[in-house]
UniProtKB/TrEMBL annotation:
Organism: Streptomyces microflavus (Streptomyces lipmanii)
Matching Gene3D superfamilies: NAD(P)-binding Rossmann-like Domain
NAD-dependent epimerase/dehydratase domain sequence ranges: 2-215
Annotated stretches, region: Disordered: 102-125
SUPFAM superfamilies: NAD(P)-binding Rossmann-fold domains (SSF51735)
Coiled-coil annotated residue ranges, if any: none
The protein's name: NAD-dependent epimerase/dehydratase domain-containing protein
Length: 274
């Protein structure tokens, strides 16, 4: 597994080891998670060092799980391993999608540039064009090059939603938590608090990886939790966990001019796969 000490990687290593796989957990630092099974092998490796990954693979492996693949270079690296790798599971992103007017996360700062995605958002929804300019375009380029090799290297691509769970460096929920810890008991939410960016907990992403490893194939899957809570719902859940009461002030439209953070657009964000 490449990127094994990242947020999803830690959980996925545990899931695969628990399912009977012999796991080599690769990261640049070669670290270990204390929760991993003792049989997990940790390996320090920089995939961008010429020939390093190929040497580490030796005679090959049954499944290669890649948490940190981006763009053409990594796609070519992976497709070059066809014949030595039985199948692959690669993390992509929900940022690949665009709406029917060509709007995506890449256009959201433009006037009327915020996307209006269908709900639910299926894997068949159109994507941005592949390229090297942005996170989303690089992920699309990666996806297309990997899928193009077909049965030579069966690849499951997981389009992850908003990842949450242990070891997140920049948790989206910190806005709510920090305000409560600071003693503030009122919050203002734009668009009636109805915006939704479908989350995926690391344990659910890890379970998808485990299942894909068992059932290899070439496919694209959205990776998200069973529920897609609204912003207001997330705030209420955090209140309950921390045992605090908060007054929530709902604004029908966007944040007022002069607010610390706002976005352009005519309605709430909705990125929801269910």
């Amino acid at each position: 597994m490449l990127g094994a000490t990242g947020q999803i990687g830690r959980a996925a290593v545990s899931a695969l080891a628990g399912d009977g796989w012999e796991v080599t957990a690769v990261s640049r630092g070669g670290g270990r998670d204390g929760r991993w099974d003792g049989g997990v092998r940790a390996l320090a490796l920089d995939r961008d060092e010429e020939g390093a990954l190929e040497k580490a693979l030796g005679e090959g492996c049954d499944v290669l799980v890649d948490m940190v693949a981006f763009g053409a270079r990594h796609a070519q690296q992976l497709t070059g391993l066809a014949g030595r790798v039985g199948s692959a599971v690669v993390i992509s992103s929900g940022a690949v999608y665009e709406d029917d007017r060509g709007r995506s996360f890449d256009t959201q700062e433009q006037p009327d540039g915020f996307p209006r995605y269908p709900v639910p958002l299926p894997e068949t929804q159109r994507t941005v064009e592949p390229g090297g300019a942005t996170y989303g375009t690089r992920k699309v380029l990666l996806e297309r090059e990997l899928l193009a090799v077909g049965d030579a290297l069966p690849v499951t691509l997981l389009r992850a939603g908003a990842v949450h769970g242990p070891y997140c460096r920049t948790p989206r929920e910190l806005y709510f938590v920090k305000r409560l810890l600071d003693g503030r008991r009122r919050r203002v939410l734009a668009y009636g608090g109805e915006s939704r960016f479908h989350p995926v907990h690391v344990s659910n992403a890890a379970e998808l990886i485990r299942l894909a490893a068992r059932l290899p194939g070439s496919r694209v899957l959205n990776a998200a939790d069973p529920q897609a809570p609204t912003v207001a719902g997330i705030g209420a859940a955090i209140d309950e966990v921390l045992g605090r009461e908060t007054e929530t002030v709902l604004v029908d439209g966007p944040a007022p001019e002069g607010a610390w953070a706002r976005r352009r657009g005519a309605g709430p964000i909705r990125w929801c796969t269910t």
